[in-house]
């Protein structure tokens, strides 16, 4: 019998508390067709000893998701033996935070696997496994629905109705040059802090290629002792975010020790009318966010808007009027943590230059994607490379300021200098299978 070597890289399994009432929400799925692989539940020392550990459910290509079966392969085809195509796996779950443990690898072949969650949130990237090698990773995913309570719900837009972020299930995308996922463990977690994100199209989880934002990349940089919940949406202003019930949805689950990152300004500057302005309605609205968050014992963090690709010569021109200054003023006045992304991305894009910065935005010649008859030239919205660079800027600023979020960073997170960005040719991104050529809301 062939000897199998198993290598388990355990990534920061800590502080897990499971109580008996969540037994029904605990799953262990065996996706491997190899008889030499046996999935095991990752029990922690501080877990209740008499918790009922679920038996592994054998998953075959015929195990397809439906509201009746509640788990299975979804959206695309099931994995095909010998093929390297991506696939999706979904589980119907109530709202909440869930720790996911994936075992990547195969007894039969080497693998290179990327894992994304829900609306294309990056969790793991380019994990290489040798033949017969298995690696385990843990991360926490926020699953939500539009419902705020029994009577109220978020007023989602027509374009959001098919977003994986808002449906009844938790979905994982298993992708890569040779994706190999042997097992998936799912369990609810209640006591990890949550980092809530609110903002516009530069923050939102973009479901389809070639669009991307920093909000869906930052999940890759945090360990399983914290959860990122991205509530941002394209086209939002600080005011509309409140009116549509999005802030109320966040506040319905916000608890002491959580964080709220706010990046607005792109769409706010377009609003007109009496009392509207950066230091008037905009600052007042953000003050409401800050007060609501602090009343619940959570931590507000203000983020200035990302720069647009608007060059005059080799310098970026300011296109956000006095909105970044209003955010800086409010942060100082209210003694709120500030991440000055407006300043940092100016340095980043100027380092790239007028031509090189196109690599960070949705600039693609015609026929790059199926059905794309015209070039794409968007100077506001980012592609995966650009979103990833901006995320690294934010993570480096968290580290520079020694914010309490530092303790949740993964140990493999490198330092980053926005004046020396990663060359595009060194960025490895395996594209998701879905493409949308329509521009996100907002500009």
Give a short summary of the structure.
With 443 residues, this protein is of the alpha/beta class.
Question: Tags for this entry?
Answer:
443 residues, alpha/beta, Jelly Rolls, Rossmann fold, 2 domains, five-stranded mixed beta sheet, five-stranded antiparallel beta sheet, 17% helix, globular
Description:
The chain is α/β, with parallel strands linked by helices. The protein folds into 2 domains: 8-191, Galactose-binding lectin (Jelly Rolls, Sandwich), CATH 2.60.120; 193-426, SGNH hydrolase (Rossmann fold). It has 6 helices and 19 strands. The protein has helices at residues 238-243, 246-251, 278-295, 323-334, 341-356, 384-400, and strands at residues 27-30, 57-58, 71-74, 87-92, 96-106, 111-117, 121-129, 133-143, 169-178, 181-189, 194-199, 227-230, 259-263, 299-303, 311-312, 315-316, 337-339, 361-364, 376-382. Helix 3 packs across helix 4. It is globular. The model is unreliable at 1-22 (pLDDT under 50).
């Amino acid at each position: 019998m062939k000897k199998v070597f198993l290598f388990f890289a355990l990534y920061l399994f800590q502080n897990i508390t499971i109580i008996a009432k969540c037994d029904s929400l605990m799953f262990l799925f065996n996706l491997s067709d190899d008889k030499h692989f046996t999935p095991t539940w990752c029990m922690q020392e501080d877990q209740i000893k008499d918790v009922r550990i679920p038996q592994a459910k054998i998953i075959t290509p015929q195990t397809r998701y439906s509201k009746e079966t509640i788990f299975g392969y979804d959206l695309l085809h099931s994995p095909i033996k010998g093929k390297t195509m991506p696939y999706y796996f979904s589980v119907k779950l109530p709202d909440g935070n869930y720790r996911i443990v994936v075992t990547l690898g195969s007894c039969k072949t080497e693998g290179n696997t990327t894992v994304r969650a829900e609306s294309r949130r990056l969790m793991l990237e380019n994990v290489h496994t040798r033949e017969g090698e298995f690696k385990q990773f843990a991360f926490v995913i926020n699953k939500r629905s539009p419902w705020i309570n029994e009577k109220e719900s978020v007023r989602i837009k027509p374009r959001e109705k098919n977003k994986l972020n808002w449906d009844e299930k938790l979905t994982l995308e298993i992708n890569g040059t040779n994706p190999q996922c042997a097992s998936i463990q799912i369990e609810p977690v209640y006591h990890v802090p949550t980092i809530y994100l609110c903002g516009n199209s530069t923050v939102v989880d973009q479901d389809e290629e070639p669009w991307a934002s920093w909000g869906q990349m930052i999940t890759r940089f945090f360990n399983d002792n914290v959860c990122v919940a991205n509530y941002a949406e394209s086209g939002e202003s600080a005011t509309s975010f409140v009116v549509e019930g999005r802030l109320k949805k966040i506040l319905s689950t916000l608890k002491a020790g959580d964080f709220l990152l706010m990046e607005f300004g792109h769409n706010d500057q377009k609003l007109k009318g009496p009392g509207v302005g950066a230091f008037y309605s905009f600052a007042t609205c953000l003050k409401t966010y800050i007060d609501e968050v602090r009343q619940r014992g959570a931590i507000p963090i203000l983020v200035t808007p990302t720069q647009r690709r608007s060059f005059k010569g080799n310098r970026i021109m300011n296109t956000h009027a006095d909105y970044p200054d209003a955010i800086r003023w409010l942060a100082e006045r209210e003694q709120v943590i500030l991440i000055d992304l407006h300043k940092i991305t100016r340095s980043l894009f100027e380092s790239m230059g007028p031509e090189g910065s196109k690599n960070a935005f949705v600039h693609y010649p015609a026929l790059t994607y199926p059905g794309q008859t015209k070039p794409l030239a968007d100077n506001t919205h980012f592609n995966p490379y650009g979103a990833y660079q901006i995320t690294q800027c934010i993570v480096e600023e968290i580290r520079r300021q020694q914010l309490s979020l530092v303790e949740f960073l993964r140990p493999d997170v490198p330092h980053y200098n926005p004046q020396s960005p990663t060359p595009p040719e060194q960025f490895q991104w395996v594209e998701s299978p879905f493409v949308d050529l329509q521009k996100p809301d907002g500009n």
